[in-house]
Design a protein that fits this description.
Length: 138
């Protein structure tokens, strides 16, 4: 094998390694990991229809909360408990928690709650929990 061939072989291995490592850093997940939508779809199908505000397609018994980096596990649990709820799912990469709470009456109540949570110094943002079907994902 000539020096040129060895160099091209090294470049090829380098590109493959960059693709594998880059996919974990750029995409935030390994190439063979399940996509987040697949995990979320499993949780959507298990929610009873009574927990939705049908007119507005917003779940009235759960909310999404993105915590700031400095929020500890105790902080997250305390916030969920202050809402009368509990964290049912948490993604440490995005720091987003799905918090199950006592059902509110309307989507407007959920939007107001999200706005109030957004004022909390440990919360980056909060959002009503909108099912994926609302966005055309089935």
């Amino acid at each position: 094998m000539t020096d040129t061939q060895r160099k091209w072989l090294a470049v090829g291995f380098g590109l493959v390694a960059l693709l594998i490592v880059g996919s974990e850093f750029l995409l935030g997940q390994p190439l063979n990991s399940p996509r987040p939508a697949n995990r979320l779809m499993a949780s959507v199908s298990s929610v009873p229809i009574s927990s939705f505000d049908i007119d507005n397609n917003i779940r009235t018994n759960s909310i999404l909360i993105s915590f700031k980096k400095e929020a500890t596990v105790k902080d997250r649990d305390a916030l969920a408990q202050s809402l009368g709820g509990r964290i049912v799912q948490y993604d440490p990469r995005s720091r987003i928690a799905v918090v199950q709470i006592p059902s509110r009456k309307t989507a407007v109540d959920m939007i107001q709650l999200a706005q109030q949570l957004g004022q909390n110094p440990l919360v980056e943002f909060a959002s009503p929990d909108i099912p994926l079907q609302y966005y055309g994902v089935h």
